[in-house]
Amino acid sequence: MNRNIFLTTLLLGAGALSTQGALIHRYSFNDTAGDASGATLTDSIGGANGIVRGDGATFTGSGLSLPGGGSGTAAYGDLPNNLISTQTAVTLEGWVSVNDGGNVWARVFDFGSSNSAEVIGPGGGGVGTDYLLLSAARGTDYNAQRIEVRNEDPAGGGIATFDSGVATTFGQAFHFAVAWENDGDGTSTINYWRDGIHLTIDGDVGSELGDLNDVNNWLGRSNWTADANLNGTFDEFRIYDSALSGAEVAASLAAGPDTVIPEPSSVLLSLLGLGILMRVRRR
Ligand SMILES: [Ca+2]
Ligand SMILES: [Ca+2]
Ligand SMILES: [Ca+2]
Ligand SMILES: [Ca+2]
Fold first, then answer.
1. Ligand nearest to the CA of 41
2. How far apart are CA 200 and CA 175, in angstroms?
3. Which ligand is in closest contact with the Cα of 65?
4. Coil, helix or strand for 211?
5. pLDDT in tens, 172-214
6. Which pLDDT score is estimated for 16?
7. How many CB atoms are located within 10 Å of the residue 233 CB?
8. Domains of the chain
9. Which ligand is nearest to the CA of 31?
């Protein structure tokens, strides 16, 4: 191929692919092992640091371990407000292990509001009003899970529920990816994978990301105050500004929690740099 055509093709390719989504928040929890009470949860990409609230959390050296227990006292991860309502598409991805059962309706994550309000610290809240949640259990059944979008802050926006049933082995990490994409007509679409298995396929939601009052963006805690907190360990949690495809989820799962796959545009830009270098060297 003529080198100029080659370079033009690369530029056009990079331009086209740059519209694909980016990883915008990354929490790896690789802090020194020990007490994590009150600790900062560092966002190494977006600077949207969170904080550990409540009692009993520890860092393992590679993860954040939460003890489980009632939401009035137990530890959870509190991420900043408005992380996903400001987007038109997101994927929430991570690796987590459930360490023990018993905690009724424990959440992997729950982004929304409780009694239509922000809750800071353990306790308070009440009814989950707006939210996107992924539960680790349905009730106390850890071989059953739920994704739910509720848009009742303000009231009247409706609810969408997507149940799945995957056997959970306590202490063994699993991978999750929940992709939520606005359809552009006030509704949206949800896809969900656990360990690469596509469990929710183009689920219909009657609201969109901008409808979400995401002021309680929690790891391991529910916007329903009566639900218990998760007894589990987060190795990694990520937010992308796009709905990942099945292929992208599979690639990320294969790369693992410690490795971020380069975006296509940056790969192409590297190739472009190589192309220019080759061109210069041939002179
Ligand atoms: Ca709402
Ligand atoms: Ca739709
Ligand atoms: Ca908040
Ligand atoms: Ca980690």
1. 4
2. 15
3. 4
4. helix
5. 999 999 999 999 999 999 999 999 999 999 999 999 999 999 9
6. 43
7. 23
8. 28-254 (2.60.120.200)
9. 4
